[in-house]
Amino acid sequence: MFEVGELVVYGNKGVFKVEAIGVLDGMFQSGKEYYTLRSVRSSSQMVYIPVQSEKSPLRKVITKEQSLDLLERLPGLGQLEIKNEKLREQTYRESMDKHECEEWMKVLKTLYNRMQERRLRGKRATSMDERYMQVAKKCLLEEFAVAMSISTDEVEQVIKKKIHQ
After folding, report:
1. Which residues are listed as membrane-spanning (predicted)?
2. How far is the C-alpha of 146 from the C-alpha of 123, rounded, in Å?
3. What is the pLDDT of residue 113?
């Protein structure tokens, strides 16, 4: 169970602060307890998650030490293995749905390299690649920025340097 004031990651939606825990008034008359979560990126975004939900992809934000360790491992981190182009999106989705920083890093690294290869051949990135790049980037940059107490722009620069190593 999470505590009020704790920072959590909610699936691929980003980092949220637990604002309250309790039974909701109004249309939710189930008597169940819910986490009231507020986005750290957009204070107007609120989410209500059942406390007892096993399907809810809710976890604690990684620590600064964990984020630094992941960044150090990024150059040696493998890419996603995509053997069949028809299964590319499924592979991206399955990796993203694990809701783990290391998986998001693999998606980013795979897409970054794929986009560079396509550019060198005079081709543009596909809309699917751009979409998954945006989601993976948002998730990873937001969590690392919170964990390391720096801006998302600074995190992005560090990641770009590590990918090139």
Report:
1. none
2. 35
3. 92
- Of 140, 163, 152, 10, give the one whose Cα is nearest residue 66: 140
Locate the domains of the chain by residue range. 7-60, 64-164
Q: In whole angstroms, what is the distance from residue 23 CA to residue 154 CA? A: 39
Rounded to an integer, what distance in angstroms lies between the CA atom of residue 59 and that of residue 15?
A: 10
Distance CA 108, CA 87 (A): 17
Kindly indicate whether the domain formed by 64-164 is annotated with CATH number 1.20.1050.
no
Q: Any idea what DSSP says for residue 27?
A: T
In this predicted model, what pLDDT tens digit does every residue of 29-85 receive, in sequence order?
677 889 999 999 888 999 999 898 777 789 999 999 999 999 999 989 899 999 898
CA–CA dist 165, 153 (Å, integer)? 19
Contact call for residues 36 and 19 (beta carbons, < 8 A): yes
Residues listed for the chain: 165
Write the burial class of residue 149 (CB in 10 Å: 0-12 exposed, 13-18 middle, 19+ buried): exposed
pLDDT digits (tens, 9 = 90+) for 125-147: 999 999 999 999 999 999 999 99
